[in-house]
Structure formats: structure tokens, C-alpha cells
Specification:
The protein has 74 residues and is mainly beta. The protein contains no helices and 6 strands. Strands 1-2-5 form a 3-stranded antiparallel sheet, with no helix packed on it.
Length: 74
Amino acid sequence: MKYLFFLFFSVSMFSQNIVTGKTFSEQGYILKNVLIININTNEKTTSNNEGFFSIKANINDELRFVKSVAFLRL
């Protein structure tokens, strides 16, 4: 089973924070195109090709990270 690991940074702006970070696997591989959702505000963003993302969030907001897995038919 693959696990996502996240590195977070936070910057305060007018009572709302910008959370930035990087998504990578348990093995240290960069995970691109991960969907990040702020459950409280329904704001969404995706990580770029280098795994970096930023999203608006308040203290105690819940962030959810979703990496879809494509299945190939052989």
C-alpha cells in the first residue's frame, strides 16, 4: 500500500493562512497531480509536476489529499 507524505509550511495573511507543501510517496518519489481539498471551505487545488501545492486554510481546517490511480487494461 502506498502512503502519501506531506511537507507543510504556513504563511499568515489577513486571518487566513496559505498552506504550502510538497507531496511525495513513502519511498520518497514525487507525487504530482495530487488533489488537495479544504473540507471546511471546499477549496481545491492540485500539486504541480514537482509535487508543490498551496491552498488557503484556517486553523483547524481539514485538508484531504487524493491521488487517483489509473488502471490500464492489458
